[in-house]
Amino acid sequence: MRIAQPDYYLKTDTMQMEIDRKKTIGERLLRERQRFGWSQTDAARKADVSFSAYRSYEDGRSAPNAEALQELARYGVDVLYVVTGQATDGKLSPDEMMLLGAWRDSPDEIRAGILGFYRAYGATIRREEI
């Protein structure tokens, strides 16, 4: 015969699981920020949240909402990894993700210049291979 536990044990277990989940997400968010070489201030700006809100994410006191994660994804943060611990299966290397984040953050004039450079570079390489 199983003895029923009082409700406060269940609440305590659930609360501890929530605390652990927030801490784990915070640790992953920290690793992503470090991968890009951002300060917490930089990451807060990119997530469109206050510095204290961002710091509370990394400290595990709160978890980022969908809007903050969406903003970070625009800069190449692997949101799937942050939330689940599963990386995006190496579809992009860390350098590629960093470049993609910089690309998305760039104004149209910079993007046009970069595209022009790579088109000219590609044309030069193809001529040398012929």
Nutshell version of this structure?
The chain is mostly helical and 130 residues long.
CATH homologous superfamily label of the domain at 7-91? lambda repressor-like DNA-binding domains
Overall geometry: elongated
* Percentage beta strand: under 5%
Total helical elements: 7
Count of distinct strands: 0
Average pLDDT: 86
Q: What is the H/E order?
A: HHHHHHH
State the major sheet: none
Structural class: mainly alpha
Q: Predict the CATH topology of the domain at 7-91.
A: 434 Repressor (Amino-terminal Domain)
The CATH C-level class name of the domain at 7-91: Mainly Alpha
End-to-end CA span:
81 Å
Low-confidence stretches: none
Known CATH architecture of the domain at 7-91? Orthogonal Bundle
Question: What share of residues is helical?
Answer: over 70%
The whole-angstrom Rg is 21 Å
